[in-house]
Amino acid sequence: MDQPKDLIELTIPAKAQYVGVVRLAVSGIANRMGFSYDDIEDMKLAVAEACTNAVDHAYTDQLGKVDVIFRIYRDRLEIRIKDEGNSFDIAAVKQRSGPIENHLPLTAMRERGLGLHLMETLMDRVDIDGGKGVVVTLTKFMQRDEVDHDVDSPAETRSY
Amino acid sequence: MNVSIEEKPGTGQSTMLVVSGEVDAYTAPQLREKLMPLCEQNREVYLDLSRVDYMDSTGLGVLIGAYKSLRSQKGRLVLVGVSPRLSRLLKITGLTEIIEIEDGA
């Protein structure tokens, strides 16, 4: 497996008001890597969904923290969102995940639970590990033409 | 990273809420608090989202709650000024099939 070029770690208190700070970090890092506007917006949303889940479900006492680890690779950004709160039934949540279906009666229409569906649609890869706390790993690959604009990659050897 | 909400009452049992800023887990409760009573008092609620820069699933949850409340009394929820970003989000979550969206402007 290739090694990340750079690593950025951010720890926030498990409170909803700090999820916006993580969004700003996503935007700054992905922008620096050369991702497109749409990819950046997709990642901001997916990461915010994972952080919001961590804040909502993981802690009852509001004293916890959420670690966000950005791994910058040449061809992709991998973002790991980690909490140490209560685990949840991943299989059950996955089964409920999906878009809202309009044939269902009004009362059956859910107001929550769209987060995982959004993450899966907006990212290239979503990995969820339970155990002690929950670890969500989101991956977005750069488009070919975006990689070409990567300022940090070594310049191509050219013969004139 | 805040939201501001302004009501522009219409004629009869119709009203418009203009939402600006970011609707996320932190600000969505403010939107819900303003929106839900209006859904109980009006037949038609227009939600102008043209100045919303960001919305996530907690914001969508508020829209679904408002839609359910209005529909249960045969009322209408209409979204106005939906950006391409927001439109994509509504499509992914299946909400374009359910909630009325006004084109244009």
UniProtKB/TrEMBL annotation, chain A:
**Which residues does the UniProt record annotate as the domain Histidine kinase/HSP90-like ATPase?**
12-140
Q: Does the keyword Nucleotide-binding apply?
A: yes
- EC category name: transferase
Enumerate the catalysed reactions: L-threonyl-[protein] + ATP = O-phospho-L-threonyl-[protein] + ADP + H(+); L-seryl-[protein] + ATP = O-phospho-L-seryl-[protein] + ADP + H(+)
Tell me any Pfam family this protein matches. Answer: HATPase_c_2
Q: Name one GO molecular function term.
A: sigma factor antagonist activity
Question: Which keywords has UniProt assigned to this entry?
Answer: ATP-binding, Kinase, Nucleotide-binding, Serine/threonine-protein kinase, Transferase
Q: What is its EC number?
A: 2.7.11.1
Role = Negative regulator of sigma-B activity. Phosphorylates and inactivates its specific antagonist protein, RsbV. Upon phosphorylation of RsbV, RsbW is released and binds to sigma-B, thereby blocking its ability to form an RNA polymerase holoenzyme (E-sigma-B).
Question: What family does this belong to?
Answer: Belongs to the anti-sigma-factor family.
The family database entries (PANTHER family) matched by this protein are listed as: ANTI-SIGMA-F FACTOR RSBW-RELATED (PTHR35526), SERINE-PROTEIN KINASE RSBW (PTHR35526:SF9)
Entries under NCBIfam families matching the protein: PRK04069.1 (NF003144), rsbW_low_gc (TIGR01924)
| The name this protein goes by in its record | Serine-protein kinase RsbW
Organism name:
Paludifilum halophilum
Gene behind this protein? rsbW
From TrEMBL, chain B:
Domain STAS per the UniProt entry, residue ranges: 16-105
Q: Which Pfam families does the UniProt record give?
A: STAS (PF01740)
| Gene3D superfamilies in the record | STAS domain (3.30.750.24)
Keyword list, A-Z? Phosphoprotein
Task: Give the source's domain of life in one word.
Answer: Bacteria
Q: Which GO terms describe its molecular function?
A: anti-sigma factor antagonist activity
Q: Does the keyword Phosphoprotein apply?
A: yes
Biological role stated in the UniProt entry: Positive regulator of sigma-B activity. Non-phosphorylated RsbV binds to RsbW, preventing its association with sigma-B. When phosphorylated, releases RsbW, which is then free to complex with and inactivate sigma-B.
Q: What family does the database annotate?
A: Belongs to the anti-sigma-factor antagonist family.
Know the name of this protein?
Anti-sigma factor antagonist
Q: Which organism is it from?
A: Paludifilum halophilum
